[in-house]
Amino acid sequence: MSTNSDHLSGNLTCLRVGLIGDPVVHSLSPRFQQAALDACGIVARYELWQTPGDKLVERVRSLCAKDCLGANVTIPHKRAVLPLLDEIDPLAAKIGAVNTIVHRDDYLSGYNTDAPGLLCALQEQGIGKTEPGGQVSLKGYTVVLLGAGGAARGAAFALTGAGIELLIILNRHLERAQMLAADVQQHYDGPVFSLNDPTFLIPHASAIIINATSLGMHEDASMLPNEVLARFDPDTFVYDMIYNPSQTYLLCQARAIGLRTANGLSMLLHQGAQSFTLWTGKPAPLDVMRAALG
Ligand code: NAP
Fold it and tell me: Best exposed site among 7, 70, 114, 125 by fewest CB in 10 Å?
């Protein structure tokens, strides 16, 4: 019987890996994943698998084909795929969302690489330290997390797992922020506050503000009024998970008062790099992937 490792060592025909979601057409993943596969000499195609909800079960089953390495999963299926898999990595289970499926020995395993991807993206900006075991430490930082949806959930578990001092979740619907705070508190001893009114935000030293809402994708708007942002220390770092547009309204507000900023392209890159390694067992060619993103 052939295995994925036969394919990876170049013995057999073309492998497949792809993105499951609805919609998928605008995704940047094929661009940098295909570049990585080619650069590592892996004969495989990264495909776009447009999948409406009523076709999800069938699509996930199709990942058990011999030539399939696995998949990425995006909106709106990151939660729905969990019960369709054979095993779930503990971090993905805690977050309740899978963005990477690996097909190995006829088993489908689910992982979440969005969360560690965010930590790598922050680290690239000089935020946090790498501990001897390779884990990222964010000890001493306070995080203001904007949003309480899927991406915010992953961020909240990643950040608290990295040892931040305090987490403040600000969300339009307060009850969603409170639910996320309660889930996080089951695994984290530090303080977690939930808010829906930014005017109650009290600035803290060593703050990181992370936008994990979709506000700013299609409109010139942000969760934080200028006067609230201006209360933060000049060393505050502002990260927006949105990468299209590359400069959101929030990033423009922050830059206008001299705060350091970055957009979500680095998180996209690092989550993709970790997915690549899970599928192939090989280190991701980060420079190739970064160059392919442009
Ligand atoms: P989601 O689960 O649908 O959550 C959306 C969040 O945005 C919720 O907190 C929602 O608040 C908030 N929101 C939506 N419209 C709003 C508005 N008009 N005003 C205030 N808040 C609003 O989506 P998601 O999967 O978490 O994704 C969120 C963002 O992260 C998206 O822009 C996505 O592209 C980005 N993302 C980036 C990466 C990356 O690699 N860079 C990875 C994952 C996600 P309510 O709860 O009050 O509705």
Answer: 125
Superfamily of the domain at 4-112 = Leucine Dehydrogenase, chain A, domain 1 (3.40.50.10860)
Residue 121 and residue 262 in contact, taking contact as beta carbons nearer than 8 Å: yes
Task: Report whether CATH 3.40.50.2000 matches the domain 116-266.
Answer: no
Q: What is the mean pLDDT of each run of 10 residues along the chain (294 residues)?
A: 51 87 95 98 97 98 97 95 98 95 96 96 94 90 95 95 97 97 95 97 93 96 97 96 96 98 97 98 97 94
Which atom of ligand 1 sits closest to the CA of residue 268?
40
Tell me the whole-structure pTM to 2 decimals: 0.93
Q: At what angle do helices 265-280 and 114-124 cross, to 10 degrees?
A: 130
Please give all residues whose beta carbon lies within 6 A of any atom in ligand 1, as ranges: 75, 114, 147-152, 171-173, 176, 212-215, 217, 223, 241-243, 264, 267-268, 271
User: Which of 29, 32, 52, 48 lies closest to 40, judged by CA?
Assistant: 32
Say how many Å lie between the CA of residue 213 and the centre of ligand 1.
Answer: 3
Domain chopping of the chain, boundaries: 4-112, 116-266
pLDDT at res. 189: 94
Q: DSSP assignment, residue 72?
A: E
Q: What is the DSSP letter of 212?
A: -
